[in-house]
């Protein structure tokens, strides 16, 4: 993580400038550049480390257990261990941990706003959509059970859920398309690097060839 602070077009340009100062024995400029480079890298390292610690703490706080029926009885297990075929017991306030189908219990109200944009909670079970058997019993991973208690059988988990497939598609697409602003920054950095290379080459030629070193 610390070494990563010194990679990138701008950092490499500064490092090239420091190397040039070192080669021509320009110690004041070399010292200033190295101090600034190390200060920037150290600050970036501690900021990134602090952010990573916050993310880890958030993940730890989000770890949740849920009653799951196995071998004829309900046991509380971490939701990350839920597999297709498990029967979940959920109550109002729970986040649905996997795509599942309502089996029995109260008529429930499920908030799917984060997934479908539906502003109001939907009723489960309800009448099936035309040509989609059991769609009226479907409960999507990531939705919130607002009202009621029920048992539901898990159909899909992880990346095989609707939200998991969407997240996987976003992850696969990330980094392939470069935004306009990012593209302009990269172009500017490439021009600056090219200019730096030309100037450094000319200086070395002038000092070691023309002046004879």
Automatic annotation (TrEMBL):
Keywords assigned by UniProt, alphabetized: Membrane, Transmembrane, Transmembrane helix
Domain P-type ATPase A, chain residue ranges per copy: 65-171
The UniProt record lists the keyword Transmembrane helix: yes
Record field: transmembrane: 191-210
Pfam families linked to this entry: E1-E2_ATPase
Keyword Nucleotide-binding on entry: no
UniProt name for this protein: P-type ATPase A domain-containing protein
Gene source species: Durusdinium trenchii
Lineage: Eukaryota, Sar, Alveolata, Dinophyceae, Suessiales
């Amino acid at each position: 993580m610390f070494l990563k602070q010194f990679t990138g077009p701008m950092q490499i340009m500064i490092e090239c400038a420091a190397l040039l100062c070192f080669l021509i024995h320009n110690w004041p400029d070399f010292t200033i550049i190295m101090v600034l480079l190390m200060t920037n890298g150290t600050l970036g390292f501690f900021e990134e480390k602090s952010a990573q610690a916050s993310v880890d703490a958030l993940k730890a706080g989000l770890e949740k257990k849920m009653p799951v029926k196995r071998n004829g009885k309900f046991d509380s297990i971490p939701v990350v261990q839920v597999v297709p075929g498990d029967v979940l017991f959920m109550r109002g306030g729970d986040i649905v941990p996997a795509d599942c189908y309502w089996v029995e219990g109260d008529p429930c109200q499920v908030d799917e706003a984060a997934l479908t944009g539906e502003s109001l909670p939907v009723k489960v079970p309800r009448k099936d959509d035309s040509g989609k058997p059991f769609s009226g019993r479907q409960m999507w991973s990531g939705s919130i059970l607002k009202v009621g208690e029920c048992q539901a059988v898990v159909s899909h988990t992880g990346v095989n859920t609707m939200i998991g497939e969407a997240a996987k598609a976003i992850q696969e697409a990330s980094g392939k398309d470069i935004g306009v602003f990012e593209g302009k920054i990269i172009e500017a950095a490439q021009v600056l690097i090219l200019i730096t290379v030309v100037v450094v080459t000319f200086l070395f030629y002038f000092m070691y060839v023309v002046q004879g070193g």
